[in-house]
Design brief:
It comes from Aphanizomenon flos-aquae FACHB-1249. InterPro entries: 3'-5'_exonuclease_dom, RNase_D-like, RNaseH-like_sf, RNaseH_sf. By secondary structure, this protein is an alpha/beta fold. The chain has 8 helices and 6 strands, in the order E-H-E-E-E-H-E-H-E-H-H-H-H-H. The protein has a 6-stranded mixed sheet with strand order 1-4-3-2-5-6, sandwiched between helices. Helix 1 runs parallel beside helix 2 and helix 4 packs parallel to helix 7. 37% of the residues are buried.
Length: 209
């Protein structure tokens, strides 16, 4: 993927791009933040990709609390949102932009249920095995806060994080169905919003004795 293959927007999706994405049965989604604690580390970028490979990266400014068109898309009940480690991204979108994402498919959960022959379930490992592509993750730990001057390397990294998710979802779904674990996977996806709410309330180990 080259940088010409996707668009960078400011603050929200345009009406035209929203209309295009709403026609998709599923879209891939990822976020970039200043760290791993949603209550502390702000949301900087949201990337979206449809089955046609159209990627949009939305810059989120410091202090921004709404993105109406993005909210419409993320809450559209007939569009599945595909994440890798949805627990974090869904919490980030809810805390920063008051978006309650649904329905959800998490490729990390699916990988853990389907690929029980390995303990390597990071996006790089999953994409390498299922797509035969080695992702460059060198920009994962970088400053995403200066949205106006993100480097081409950062933007390429952000785009690639959603580029393969829909294909990965198809392959993992086939594995889950083959191993008769598709139903339990769906149940896991359905409970994610509750887990996210508990995370944001900072409840830990709630189900331990």
């Amino acid at each position: 993927m080259t940088l010409q293959d996707f668009q960078v927007g400011e603050g929200d999706l345009s009406e035209a791009i929203l209309s295009e994405y709403l026609q998709s049965p599923a879209i891939a989604v990822d976020t970039e933040t200043m760290g791993l604690l949603p209550q502390r580390d702000r949301l900087c970028l949201v990337q979206v990709c449809n089955p046609e490979g159209q990627v949009t990266a939305i810059r989120i400014s410091r202090g921004q609390r709404v993105a109406p068109n993005l909210k419409v898309l993320m809450e559209a009940t007939d569009v599945v949102k595909v994440f890798h480690f949805a627990r974090f991204d869904v919490a980030t979108l809810k805390h920063n932009l008051d978006i309650v994402v649904s329905p959800i498919f998490c490729t990390k959960i699916a990988s853990k249920l389907a690929r029980t022959y390995t303990n390597r379930h990071g996006l790089k490992d999953v994409v390498l095995e299922l797509e035969k592509v080695e992702l460059d993750k060198s920009s994962q730990c970088s400053d995403w806060g200066n949205a106006s001057s993100l480097s081409d390397i950062q933007l390429s990294y952000a785009a690639n994080d959603v580029r393969y998710l829909l294909s990965v979802r198809e392959k993992l779904t086939a594995m889950l169905e083959r191993e008769e674990r598709w139903q339990v996977a769906q149940e896991c996806f359905q409970v994610l919003p509750t887990i996210v709410s508990l995370d944001l309330l900072q409840f830990k180990d709630l189900f331990e004795h």
